[in-house]
Amino acid sequence: xxxxxxGAFAAVPVVGIALNTHHLDEMAAQQAIAQTxxxxxxxxxxxxxxxxxxxxxxxxxx
Length: 62
Description:
The protein contains four helices and two strands.
C-alpha cells in the first residue's frame, strides 16, 4: 500500500477470483463459486479443486 501510494506500482485490474473452498463439500463449493461470480461479475473458481482454466481465460482476455 505504501509503494502504491508513492506511485511505485500502477493500478492492477482484477479479472478473476480464486476462492479457497477447502472447508466446504463439493456442492457447497460450487454454490459459493456461483454466488461469488454473481455478486462480483467476475469469473471465480477454486483452482485446487476445479483447475485454473477459467481464471487463465480471464487473464488472457484482459
